[in-house]
Amino acid sequence: MSTDDKRIREFAYQIWESEGKPEGQEARHWEMARKLAEAEALAPKKSPKAAASKAAPKKSADAKPVPDKTLNGKTAAPKTKAKPAAASKVIPPGEKAAEKKPRAPRKPPAI
Protein backbone atom coordinates (compact mmCIF):
# COMPACT_ATOMS: atom_id res chain seq x y z
CA MET A 1 0.00 0.00 0.00
CA SER A 2 1.47 3.35 -1.00
CA THR A 3 1.68 6.41 1.18
CA ASP A 4 -1.08 8.01 -0.92
CA ASP A 5 -3.42 5.08 -0.27
CA LYS A 6 -2.72 5.28 3.47
CA ARG A 7 -3.46 9.02 3.49
CA ILE A 8 -6.71 8.49 1.54
CA ARG A 9 -7.70 5.76 4.00
CA GLU A 10 -7.02 8.13 6.94
CA PHE A 11 -9.08 10.91 5.35
CA ALA A 12 -11.95 8.54 4.52
CA TYR A 13 -12.01 7.26 8.09
CA GLN A 14 -12.06 10.81 9.48
CA ILE A 15 -14.93 11.75 7.14
CA TRP A 16 -16.86 8.60 8.11
CA GLU A 17 -16.40 9.37 11.82
CA SER A 18 -17.32 13.04 11.42
CA GLU A 19 -20.61 12.08 9.74
CA GLY A 20 -21.60 9.79 12.59
CA LYS A 21 -20.33 6.51 11.06
CA PRO A 22 -23.13 6.00 8.51
CA GLU A 23 -23.37 2.72 6.59
CA GLY A 24 -23.31 2.49 2.79
CA GLN A 25 -21.35 5.71 2.18
CA GLU A 26 -17.92 4.13 1.58
CA ALA A 27 -17.64 5.14 -2.08
CA ARG A 28 -18.59 8.76 -1.39
CA HIS A 29 -16.20 8.98 1.58
CA TRP A 30 -13.39 7.41 -0.44
CA GLU A 31 -13.91 9.88 -3.31
CA MET A 32 -13.94 12.85 -0.94
CA ALA A 33 -10.80 11.54 0.75
CA ARG A 34 -9.07 11.03 -2.61
CA LYS A 35 -9.77 14.64 -3.56
CA LEU A 36 -8.48 15.88 -0.20
CA ALA A 37 -5.28 13.84 -0.50
CA GLU A 38 -4.77 15.09 -4.06
CA ALA A 39 -5.20 18.71 -2.97
CA GLU A 40 -2.84 18.15 -0.06
CA ALA A 41 -0.20 16.70 -2.40
CA LEU A 42 -0.52 19.68 -4.79
CA ALA A 43 -0.30 22.30 -2.03
CA PRO A 44 3.04 24.10 -1.85
CA LYS A 45 5.25 22.81 0.90
CA LYS A 46 7.26 25.11 3.15
CA SER A 47 10.96 24.38 3.36
CA PRO A 48 12.69 24.43 6.77
CA LYS A 49 14.61 27.57 5.67
CA ALA A 50 11.37 29.41 4.83
CA ALA A 51 9.87 28.53 8.21
CA ALA A 52 13.02 29.67 10.04
CA SER A 53 13.18 32.98 8.16
CA LYS A 54 9.63 33.85 9.20
CA ALA A 55 10.46 33.36 12.88
CA ALA A 56 10.90 36.53 14.89
CA PRO A 57 14.52 37.65 15.17
CA LYS A 58 16.09 37.31 18.61
CA LYS A 59 16.68 40.52 20.52
CA SER A 60 19.90 41.18 22.35
CA ALA A 61 19.89 42.57 25.90
CA ASP A 62 20.92 46.07 24.77
CA ALA A 63 18.58 46.27 21.75
CA LYS A 64 16.29 49.29 21.63
CA PRO A 65 12.61 48.96 20.65
CA VAL A 66 11.91 50.01 17.09
CA PRO A 67 9.29 52.77 16.88
CA ASP A 68 6.11 51.99 15.02
CA LYS A 69 5.43 54.66 12.37
CA THR A 70 1.65 54.17 12.65
CA LEU A 71 1.63 55.40 16.26
CA ASN A 72 3.47 58.68 15.68
CA GLY A 73 6.86 57.31 16.69
CA LYS A 74 5.67 55.53 19.83
CA THR A 75 6.36 51.83 20.27
CA ALA A 76 3.39 49.54 19.96
CA ALA A 77 2.46 46.80 22.39
CA PRO A 78 2.85 43.28 20.98
CA LYS A 79 -0.33 41.98 19.39
CA THR A 80 -1.71 38.61 20.38
CA LYS A 81 -4.64 36.75 18.94
CA ALA A 82 -7.20 35.58 21.44
CA LYS A 83 -8.98 32.32 20.79
CA PRO A 84 -12.69 32.13 21.44
CA ALA A 85 -13.56 30.24 24.61
CA ALA A 86 -15.51 27.67 22.57
CA ALA A 87 -12.43 26.78 20.51
CA SER A 88 -10.86 24.93 23.43
CA LYS A 89 -13.61 22.31 23.66
CA VAL A 90 -14.89 20.54 20.58
CA ILE A 91 -17.96 18.40 21.08
CA PRO A 92 -18.36 15.44 18.72
CA PRO A 93 -21.62 15.25 16.77
CA GLY A 94 -24.40 13.49 18.63
CA GLU A 95 -23.11 14.40 22.10
CA LYS A 96 -24.57 17.05 24.34
CA ALA A 97 -22.47 19.77 25.89
CA ALA A 98 -22.24 19.61 29.66
CA GLU A 99 -24.10 22.56 31.09
CA LYS A 100 -22.19 24.63 33.62
CA LYS A 101 -23.79 25.68 36.87
CA PRO A 102 -23.80 29.42 37.48
CA ARG A 103 -21.32 30.62 40.08
CA ALA A 104 -22.59 31.98 43.36
CA PRO A 105 -21.80 35.67 43.86
CA ARG A 106 -18.92 36.40 46.21
CA LYS A 107 -19.70 37.75 49.62
CA PRO A 108 -18.05 41.04 50.57
CA PRO A 109 -15.23 40.66 53.10
CA ALA A 110 -16.19 41.09 56.74
CA ILE A 111 -14.92 44.29 58.28
Quickly describe the structure.
By secondary structure, the protein is an all-alpha fold. The protein has helices at 3-18, 26-42, 48-53. Helix content is 35%, strand content 0%.
Explain what this protein looks like in three dimensions:
With 111 residues, the protein is mainly α. It has a domain at 1-44. The chain is 35% helix and 0% strand. It has helices at 3-18, 26-42, 48-53.
Helices and strands, with pairings:
Blueprint lengths: L2 H16 L7 H17 L5 H6 L58
Organism: Pseudomonas laurylsulfativorans
Pfam families: DUF2934 (PF11154)
InterPro entries: DUF2934 (IPR021327)
Summary keywords:
flat; 35% helix; 111 residues; mainly alpha
Shape call: flat
Strand content: under 5%
> Span between N and C termini?
75 Å
Low-pLDDT runs:
none
Topology as a string of helices (H) and strands (E)? HHH
Instruction: Give the mean pLDDT.
Output: 74
Radius of gyration: 25 Å
DSSP helix fraction: 25-40%
Helical/strand content category: mainly alpha
Protein name: DUF2934 domain-containing protein
Organism: Pseudomonas laurylsulfativorans
Biased composition (Low complexity): 39-55, 74-87
Pfam family, one: DUF2934
